[in-house]
Write a structure and sequence with these properties.
- The chain has six helices and no strands.
- It has helices spanning about 1-50, 50-60, 60-65, 70-75, 80-95, 100-124.
- The chain is elongated, with a radius of gyration of 20 Å.
- The model is unreliable at about 15-20 (pLDDT under 50).
């Protein structure tokens, strides 16, 4: 009877640890996506108002935010990872350009936002 109880407790503990690990990665991705969506929203406002200083301040934050959870996304959904990367790098580069191309940067930022929303839908 003691062995059976010990085995059940071990299985339960192991399951709890596995589930906690999954939940941790999901919450890390979810939190990261929310931060990036907030940043793309700020960037959109700065682009629309033509505030180049704000664009240069906000745009580079996306890279740091993405780097905190991109490995989890790459592991779980390579296609969506590549889609985000496709729009992220040019958005960051455009935000640091000498002159602000509102139309091009706005389009890239919108495409990045859409890809992030797609990821957000998968983490809910």
């Amino acid at each position: 009877m003691k062995k059976l109880t010990s085995m059940i407790l071990s299985i339960g503990l192991g399951s709890a640890l596995v589930l906690a690990g999954c939940s941790s990665a999901d919450s890390k991705v979810s939190e990261g996506v929310n931060k990036m969506l907030d940043t793309t929203g700020q960037l959109s406002k700065a682009i629309n108002s033509g505030d180049q200083a704000k664009v240069k301040e906000v745009g580079p934050k996306l890279e740091d935010q993405w780097s905190s959870f991109e490995d989890d996304v790459k592991k779980d959904d390579k296609e969506l990872y590549e889609k985000i990367e496709k729009y992220l790098d040019p958005t960051i580069a455009g935000s640091q350009a000498a002159t602000l191309d509102k139309e091009a940067l706005g389009t890239l930022n919108n495409q990045l936002t859409d890809a992030l929303k797609e990821l957000e839908g998968k983490t809910e």
